[in-house]
From TrEMBL:
It is found in: Membrane. The keyword Transmembrane helix applies. Keywords: G-protein coupled receptor, Membrane, Receptor, Sensory transduction, Taste, Transducer, Transmembrane, Transmembrane helix. Belongs to the G-protein coupled receptor T2R family. Pfam families: TAS2R. This is Taste receptor type 2. CDD domains: 7tm_TAS2R. The keyword Transmembrane helix applies. GO terms for cellular component: membrane. It is a multi-pass membrane protein. It comes from the Eukaryota. GO terms for molecular function: bitter taste receptor activity; G protein-coupled receptor activity.
Amino acid sequence: SQNEFNVTSYDKMSILVITLQAFAGMWINGFIVSVLCIAWVKKKSVNSNEKILLFLGCCRFLYLCIAWVYSFLQAIYSSCYQVLQIPRILTAIQSFFNFSNIWVSACLCVFYCIKIANFRHVFFTYLKAKIDRIVPWLLLVSVLLSLVVGTLVYDVAQEVQFGNFNFTSLGNLWKLSIRVDEHFFPIFFTAGLGFAIAFMAVFFSAFLLLFSLWRHKLKMQTNSMKNHSADVHIKAIKYILYFFFLYTINFTCLILALVYATMEANPLMFLVSVVQYAFPGVHSLILIFSNPKLEKTLLRALLCARCKACKK
């Protein structure tokens, strides 16, 4: 019918912004995945850092792809959300990849902390020696936790159908609200706890890593070591601060998304969505420039593209 395809100017702006962010993020993460896959085929092996980056790039690429499809259908063909199973499936898959993105990025920060930081504690020394064996288990736990969240989201979306409730008074509407809140509580509690644990892991990893690098930098200055080494450590500290700043903003938006999940669309939720779509692309771009191999490949690709454009 005609009403199914009526799109407001607000929806058009939302689709445009989300489309630009989603495709930019997919290109950036697709670049990371392709470079690492090519290197994997050539070397026939992949280290722990590349495993996490490869898994993170795949999760983010698929998350942005599914999220864009979900937003596009929601804006263009909103009536299907009252009839078909597709929205529930898309919501569950999107939640799975989003939770994977959060947890794997936290695992990456923990990995960098254990690999780079230098502490003499016995437990930390043990982790540093065993981290390469621990990484696959961390990724497996991230997948399992994300599956739990995705399953809960699907169950909640299946059970809570506003169109199936009949209410004719404010009293029945209040009962409906309580019933909906009861359905949403398990997923809110699980997702909120998962986000909080991931954020705390990032916070403590960043703090320990910054402390270790700062102490090492002071030691180098005391021993009059080369400025080049000090510059490398300063650069590492900057990237860690960038990542922590982005992760903090994203964590705040995730909590706001949980708080306002049952409410109607509003400008605040649009801003939250913009930040959530931007995080996978912006953080992956920082990861590219913090990795010498990825940075050189990107600059070489951009130089080749520029030369071809000039020849035309």
